[in-house]
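ARCHIVE CARD
CATEGORY: sequence design from structure
SOURCE FIELD: tokenized fold
FIELD CONTENT:
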């Protein structure tokens, strides 16, 4: 009887040992910054027990770049579980996106010019809007504007926008600015066949208007004056 009990206990122990979950984990898994973790990448389905699933993942941060060691709890349909450590690597390969309103901008000399007014948006695909910075040495989390525009002088100029995300990924975009000459104001002139005073002008020359009362015997005087001052 004792032998039978001992044998039964041994069989139960062997059965329990053989019932441990078999899981082959995948180490050195690479993930994109900010992406949701795909649990099927954490283990080799072909080399693990059938119907194995991931029940829980501990210590994973999708927005922490570099190497991470995470704890993964696997289970089967019978709720048997097993913990494994998996090494993953999070990389940020996506650059910021700069959107401009126009590729070319035209202004007139003397107009006010704001280089930022032509920027529609500057965003990181994961972290969202990036803010403008006045720090020309900026290398992370923001964008700067460099411009050689002289709004008082006619010519062609360039505005460049440089953006950096949280992890230092860099993007650049630029647009042209044309400053046109300011139109000159024209002074009104009179040239309608006569000038002020008693002088007249036609296409044959100039002559003086006869004074009042000087008619009759001097009828031909205008013609004589015309001959005297006629311009060849």
């Amino acid at each position: 009887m004792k032998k039978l009990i001992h044998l039964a206990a041994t069989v139960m122990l062997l059965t329990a040992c053989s019932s441990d979950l078999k899981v082959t984990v995948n180490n050195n898994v690479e993930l994109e910054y900010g992406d949701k973790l795909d649990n099927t990448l954490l283990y080799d389905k072909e080399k693990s027990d059938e119907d194995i699933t991931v029940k829980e993942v501990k210590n994973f941060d999708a927005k922490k770049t570099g190497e991470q060691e995470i704890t993964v709890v696997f289970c089967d349909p019978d709720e048997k579980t097993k913990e494994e450590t998996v090494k993953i690597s999070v990389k940020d390969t996506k650059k910021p996106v700069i959107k401009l309103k126009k590729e070319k901008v035209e202004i007139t000399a003397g107009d006010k010019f704001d280089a930022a007014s032509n920027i529609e948006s500057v965003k990181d695909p994961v972290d969202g809007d990036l803010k403008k910075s006045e720090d020309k040495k900026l290398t992370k989390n923001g964008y700067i504007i460099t411009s050689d525009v002289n709004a008082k002088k006619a010519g062609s100029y360039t505005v460049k926008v440089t953006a950096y995300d949280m992890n230092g990924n860099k993007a650049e975009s630029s647009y042209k600015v044309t400053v046109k000459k300011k139109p000159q104001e024209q002074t009104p002139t009179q040239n309608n066949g006569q000038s002020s005073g008693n002088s007249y002008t036609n296409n044959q020359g100039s002559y003086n208007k006869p004074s009042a009362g000087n008619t009759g015997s001097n009828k031909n005087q205008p013609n004589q004056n015309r001959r005297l001052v006629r311009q060849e």
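CARD ANNOTATION: Helices lie at 2-18, 221-229. The radius of gyration is 45 Å.
SHELF: design records, drawer C
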